[in-house]
Design goal:
This protein is of the alpha+beta class. Helices cover 19% and strands 36% of the residues. The chain is built from 1 helix and 5 strands; from the N terminus they run βββαββ.
Length: 77
């Protein structure tokens, strides 16, 4: 299974949705950010990749890499 990056973003209708990088279609639509984040996290954990969570203004609030061992930002010391 290919690694894929997922973005949790506002859907423009007051709710939240997850989008796979390079795709126009979304999945895991939810009325709250927390519910959409949970769906995006589970999807990213299954396939591996980076889960990026955005705020309503479009700015990145958080990034998580799964599995953690493949995080290029982790450093010793």
């Amino acid at each position: 299974m290919a690694r894929r990056n997922v973005h949790t973003v506002p859907d423009g209708k007051g709710g939240w949705i997850n989008r796979t990088e390079g795709s126009q279609r979304g999945f895991g639509a939810a009325p709250t950010k927390a519910e959409a984040q949970a769906a995006g996290r589970e999807s990213t954990k299954r396939t591996g990749g980076e889960h990026t969570i955005h705020n309503r203004d479009g700015k990145i609030a958080e990034k998580n890499t799964y599995p953690r061992s493949s995080d290029p930002r982790s450093s010793k010391g």
